[in-house]
Amino acid sequence: MIEKKRTKSIKIRVNECELEQLNNKKAKAGFSMLADYMRTVSLDLVVPAKNVYPSVDPTLHRLLSGIGNSVNQIARKVNNSQLKAADSFKIICILSSIDSNLKKIRMSWSAK
Known about the structure:
The chain has helices at residues 16-28, 34-42, 58-80, 85-110.
C-alpha cells in the first residue's frame, strides 16, 4: 500500500508538563517521533509491537559472533570447493556439533 504524501499540518499548544507526558508515552510505545505517536493514537491505528531484546554479556556476544563468522567462512569454502563425500560428512558432523552447543548456550542464557 502506497502512503499518500502528508501536506496538511496541525499546530497545537501544550505546556511543559503535557509535553513531558506525551514524550514519555511516545517512548513507552516505542516511537521515536512524537508526530508518529500522536497520529497513531489519534487515528486508532495499530500500534506496532515494541521489540524487547534481552541484555547479553558483551564478552559472550563477541564470542558467539566470532563462532558465527567462522561457521559462515566454513560454509562458504565448502560451497566453493569440490570435496570428497567423506570430507563433506566430517564437516557436516562438526557443524552439527557446533549447532547443538550453540543451542545449549542459548537455552542456558535464555533461562536467566
